Amino acid sequence: MATFQFELVTPEKLLFSGPVEGVVIPGTEGDFEVLAQHAPVMSTIRPGLIAVRETASGAPRRLFVRGGFAEVNPDGLTILAEQAIPVEELSPERLAREITMMEEDVADATSDVARAKAALKLGQLRELQRAIAH
After folding, report:
1. Number of structural domains, the chain?
2. What DSSP assignment string belongs to 19-59?
3. Are 53 and 104 part of one and the same domain?
């Protein structure tokens, strides 16, 4: 299967860089998969799981992202994430802290728009918490 270049960048570091066969992304309009020669696109990312398939035979690497942007261009895929954590490092306690921080964002919001955005992210984090628990 054809590969393409993928980079996952957070404010702290370059978390992943290399050739991959596919990446499933939690877009704000729904999940989508990027494969080699994907049409150019830009998308915002909601909190959720990114699945990176490096080879057809291997299990995908799963990473939790708190949000960000994805850009597909002729050079490959770049994800600029607010935060990214490998799933194996995402303990129930850490996810609970993420939820608590987002609950504080909802409570501290100074406008209805900011409150609605924070509440949406909070709902997505709670959904992720339920999905990981099963």
Report:
1. 2
2. EESEEEEEETTEEEEEETTPPPEEEEE-SEEEEEESSSSSP
3. no
Do 20 and 71 lie in a common domain? Answer: yes
Q: Which of 65, 57, 56, 58 has its CA nearest to residue 87?
A: 65
The amino acid that residue 65 corresponds to is: V
Backbone φ, ψ for residue 115 (5° rounding): -65, -45
Same domain, 77 and 102: no
pLDDT in tens, the chain (134 residues): 799 999 999 999 999 999 999 999 999 999 999 999 999 999 999 988 899 999 877 788 989 888 899 999 999 999 999 989 888 887 888 888 989 999 999 999 999 999 998 998 898 788 778 767 75
**Measured between alpha carbons, how far is 31 from 41 in angstroms, rounded to an integer?**
14
* E strand or H helix at 86: strand 84-86
16 with 79, same domain: the answer is: yes
